[in-house]
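Quick one, T. Sequence first:
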Amino acid sequence: MNSGQFLGTYVGHVMTPGAADQTAEITRHNTRNYLFEVTPDNDEAQLPIFDAARVGNATRFLNHQAGDRDNVEARTLLINGEHQIGFFTKKRVKAKAELFLDYGQNYWKQSINPGFREAQ
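Structure tokens:
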């Protein structure tokens, strides 16, 4: 695949930040976090969080690698007035190579303490 190739969108239940916080106990219990937060353009925006724990597609299985080892990036998309998360290759990816995404610092803080959300 060439650099910049579209891989798909993240699919899941669309939740408010407050509703996502209420899933903290479930996340802690099953040790899996499939929440993906759309990054707001400003502090006032209340953008959705996608929860692919029960409903999702193959993009929820992208594994983490940081630094120069990740080969996929997430981009916030606005499609027909709705925010979505799209995944694109960051560089050329050979056939049968595993796809990796850098989950970012907030993911690890939430995985340790799922109810945690850092103020932007």
